[in-house]
Every structure is written in structure tokens, then in C-alpha cells.
Protein-glucosylgalactosylhydroxylysine glucosidase
Amino acid sequence: MADGKEGGAVFTSTSLPSDPRLLATVTNAYLGTRVYRDILHVNGVYNGAVGDTHRADIPSPVNVRMTVPSADGLAETFTLNTRTGTFSHVLQSTDYAATHQIYAHHSLVHLMAFSITIQRSARTTQPVGGQLQAPFVPKSQDLDLNQGPDFQGAHYVYGKTLVPEVEGGPRPGGDMLWTPVPQALMLHGEEGGRSWEFLTAVAESEEEVKRSYSEGLALIAAGSLHSSHTHAWATLWRGCCVDLDGPRPLRQALYGCLYYLLSAIPPRGNPGFLFHGISPGGLSNGTRGEDYWGHVFWDQDTWMFPNILLFYPEAARAILEYRIRTLEGALRGGEEQGYEGAKFPWESAATGREVCPEEIYGAQEIHITGDVLMAFEQYYCTTQDQKLFREDGGWKLVGAVAQYWCSRMVWSEEEQCYHIKGVMPPDEYHYRVDNSVYTNAVAQRSLNFAAAVARDFLVPVPEEWVDCAEKVKVPFDAEKKYHPEYDGYRPGEPVKQADVVLLGFPLMHPMSSEVRRNDLEMYEPVTDPEGPAMTWSMFAVGWLELKEVQRAQSQLNKCFSNITEPFKIWVENSDGSGAVNFLTGMGGFLQAVLFGYTGFRITRSSLRFNPAFPDDINKLKVTGVSYLGNKLKFTITKEEIRIKVTESPRDPLASPLEAVLEESGQRFTLREGTVSSPGSA
């Protein structure tokens, strides 16, 4: 790549954005903050009852700003290195350089840290250094914090949230240890350079926070705290890499999206905490009144999950385990609406109860229940992990969702099919409509998947599941050959966001190329240009399916108006409103590349691929694709596709994968370490 070793993965600026919401984020799966922000958030720690519940604000000891009061010829840079998961601030004068690094440790998830390094660049014995602005106050509007005794030189506070999510429910809390921050750091006399490291540990118990802090101190003593973090990121990138020989803005957007999404997933192995899902703005956001208060939506299951599953099935499983743990809340949700089975909440926090502050969405936007199950289906097809379903609660959830859909349908004598009435589709400009085509299609898919799993497990399939799946109405206009968004939809009515186009992908609802094209052409011009960022990615995927590459690219290019400089933070809407660090939009963008350009489609029987990408992309290399325990590397050019198996299952009974050319039926066996070229692209 022409722009250096990092290929667009390092974002550097000489100034910070004027809007603090657009500052870079440093998070792991447990802790998160924006740089220079006075609060941090902890995975699963919410305060407030039901509709008022929000991520609890915890005061942030890493909110430190380095300044130099009077230095000649001072140069200043701010850098987010997505490869190392580190934010840096460098002050360079004629006599010395001062570097401030901030990071949330990727593998030791209870730790955040920052370091200050001062290095002389001239032979002088004058004292040099910088001042540290640390406005930290150990108080919170969401936790009742108490001061405990110092531990190994660290200050200590602990406390619980003030108001439980549900009456009588748990009040999660946190224990925090942090290294005190001096007002200034200096080099004296003959000192040529020195580093100081500052540690923050947050956990759910005194025992865990002390253990984590001690582990961090030991790594500092060994000189390897930051290197252990960068090693974890290097390992993460090795297992999940998208290299694209094409326009620099596209590469930068890709690396930014991957960085922010990978920051949110649990590390491999036992992370040592229960994962509570991913909200649209991630852990760096979600205080009261911000970024949907840190709640979990379909954004996680539909927009972020497929990208995570493609590379890291173990992290994808953690997302599904969150849904399994909150199943009781979903069962309560179905019961409260007067139906059987599990109705997942439109907005979920710690308990799985509906926490949306506006009743209409929780009551009507029921497609979320099918979205959750579609993630389970994608996982099942990709991994064949039967343990999750047989032993770890997955089958109970599958059955409860199927039961809900059957209970939610009503029979129409007039049309001789089942209807689902009074819903809000993904297009939230319309509500209380009957037979939303997306809702009904995702319900049908839920029921078909439930029946398929039952057959796999040799469990009797309830006749009701089969009957409802076969006879649910999926609106279709046979004359115009397109899918109306709902009963009574009139062509030309404005649409908020991607809705009907989702039938083609990710639902893969059966339809001809003609109908797919008609759906795209019907809804593209009436979709709100100011709508949420993920929309255009799905139009791009649709046009790529039809090999309309330029039309696809014109849709994908719309996303760039949602990407802000200099740190590639996404905003939900192109006018800057809505959620920031909008992982949902990033997830859609990544799917346009990972499933659009490549044509990857995961089905019950195969991983299909059918690439298409624009003229200004010469090569696409996707490393770390996970399928049935294998790891694959795809190298795609306009002339050929190369597939390499980089890892195979250790099960001696596992059969090697085969690549099959659909037109000719020719088969290529894929064995670990060998490269196969199954044909031209």
C-alpha cells in the first residue's frame, strides 16, 4: 500500500474535534470511555428503574490532560492507533518530547491505564516536563460511593447503583482502585528520559479489583503492561484482517469500523465476567439521555453480530448467552402483552425486561424477537455448536420464540392465511400496521429454524410451528412484482430506513432477481436521505447481488457523510444528530464489504461466495473467516479467488471442507496449509 506500513490504520491530527462527542474511544468488553471524558462505564452496570435505566456514570481517573505551560516551538499531535488500541498525545518542543498514552487493556478487561513518557532531545540539565490536569472527583450521580483504605499505593472507592432496574432486583456496583495523579511530572539533572504509568482497576468485588490491580502492577514492574495490551490487539488483528487494495478513505473507514467493533467484544478464553451485550454507542456512551442510554437493540443482533460471527464465533456466542440469560425477562414481556412464549424487549439492559422509555416501540416493534433468533440461526449454521442449544439454554429460547410467533398470529378467513397485526416495522415512520413484510418474514424464518433444529435433535416438531410458517402472509404485489412494506402501503410513501430491502439480505427470503431489483428500485428513492447510517449499506449489498457495482458504490458512498474526522467516529444521522460512535452504522458498513463485496452467504448447508466489487478496488484479502471450526483466508481479485485453510478442527473425525463451483459442480478439497483456486471471480 502506498501510504506506509499501517495502510491507513493510524488516525493522526494536530487538533481535537470541537464536539467532544467525536473524540476517540478506548474500550474493552468490560470498561469504556471517551478520551478526556470525566466518566467511564462498566458492562452491565445500569442505574434507574425500567424506562429510566441507563449506564451508570463512574468517575474516570484516566481523564487526564497533559500540558506544557511555556515551551518554544511546541508541536502537538493526537493519534488513535487502531492496530494497538492506543490513543496518544505527543507534545514536541525543541528540547524534549512528552508522550501521553491511554488505553483500555484488551485482555485484562478490568484495567485501564495511561502513561506519560518524557524524553530529552537536547543536551541540557534544565528541568523539563509537563503539567497534568486531572479534574477527577470520586463522586457519581448513579452510585453511592464510599471511600475505602488505600491498597498498594492506590486510592479505593466502592459502591452500588442507587436504583435497581426492577423493584427488588439487584443493584450492581463497582469497586475501583487507581494510582494517584501528581500535578506535574519532570525530568531533573542528568535524566535523559523516563516513563510513569498510572493504573485504574474496576471490578464487581473487592477481591477481584485488588487481584486485577496487583496483576497490573506486576506487569508494570516487568515493563510489559502496555506491550501485553498491544500483543492482545496484534493477536486479534491476526485472526481478523481485511486488507483492501483500493481508495485510502475506504481502507480507513474499514479499519475504524473494525477497531471500534472489536473493542466491544470479549477477549478469547474466559473473560472473567458476564457479557451484557453491545449497545449502539458502545461502552464509551450511554449516560442518561445519551446514545439510547446504553440499551441493547436489534442493532446488536442484526447489524453488528454477523461481522463478529464471521471472525470470532466465541465472542458471537457470548452475545447469544446474554440473550439466553435474559430469556426470563422476554417471557415476562410476552405474558404482559397477553401472548405465550418469549417477546424480546425492543430495548434491553441487565434483566431482559422492556426498558424503552416510549411504550409504542416496546409494544409494536416486535421484529426484534425474530432478529434475536436469526442471530442464533446464523451461529448454528456457522459453528454447528450443538452444546449451546442442547445444554446451555439455546433450545429453550428457540422454542419460546416459536411459541410467541404462533401465539401472535391470527387466522384470516378471508385470505386463508395468518396475519400479524398492529406492529411497527423497521421503518419507524409507520406504526400500528398489519402484516409488516419484514416482521412476518422474520417470524416465518424463526419458525422454520425452530422446526429444523427440532428435527436435528430428533424432537417432535409441533404442527403449529409448521402450519404457521407455511401460512403466514408475506405481502407481495404479483402485478408490480415487489414486496409492499405492509398491508395498504402505497408506492412513494416515505420510508425512514432499510426495511423491505432486508428481505434479500440478511433474511435471504426466496425471490427472483427481478423482484429483488424491483424492491431496491421501489424503496431507494423514498428512503429518507437523513435516516440512520446503516441503511445505505443494505442497498449496496442488494445491488452487489445483482452485479450492479456502480449503483452499489453510490449507495455505500453515502455512508461517508456519517464518518467524522479525525478519529472516524460515526454519527447515527448525517446531520450529526442521534447516537455517536454509532456501532450499528459501522456494522452495516462492514457487512457491505464482508458480505457484499465477497458475496458471502451462510446457509444450513454451505458458506457461499460470489464476489463483486468496483473498478477502484484491485484486491480484497479477508483473513480469519470462521466456518465449522476452520479458519479460512480468501484472496479475491477480478481474475480469481484463492482460498487457504489456515486452521482446521482438531477432531480427527472432521471432514475437510470442499469448494464447489455451482455452475459445473466441480469440487476442490480444502486442506490446512494449502491454497486452492476454485475459479475466476
The two ends are 23 Å apart (CA to CA).
